[in-house]
Amino acid sequence: MHSTLAPEQGGINFNVSENQQMVIDMVRNFAEKHIRPHVMEWDEAQTFPIETFKKLGELGLMGVLVPEEYGGSGMGYHEYVHVISEISQVCGSIGLS
After folding, report:
1. In this structure, what CATH number is given to the domain that contains residue 76?
2. Is the sign of the CA dihedral 22, 85, 44, 36 positive or negative?
3. Rounded to whole angstroms, how far apart are CA atoms 19 and 35?
4. Total-model pTM
5. 34, 52 in Cβ contact below 8 A?
6. 5 lies in some domain
7. Reduced to 3 states, what is the DSSP secondary structure of residue 2?
8. Structural domains counted in the chain
9. Mean pLDDT by 10-residue block, N- to C-terminus, for the chain (97 residues)?
């Protein structure tokens, strides 16, 4: 069931904040630069791009939901979904890994 209520009426706010938009842009740029050029190569060779995942980790994208005090990014589920969505638009298998 979907809510048709405005956030101030108890509905869910799906508007993207400025911080979320920065995360979306960063992930989109990363995916275009570091994933898209290699997707077919990785698929045909049946390889797991560990170096790409290390780079994602350096950006804090491997611990999006982990609190900062434990070494994560301390973001929420909305940011997490945006990260997965942006990567999956370029390569679904990496987005779900």
Report:
1. 1.10.540.10
2. negative
3. 23
4. 0.82
5. yes
6. no
7. coil
8. 1
9. 58 84 97 97 95 95 95 94 97 92
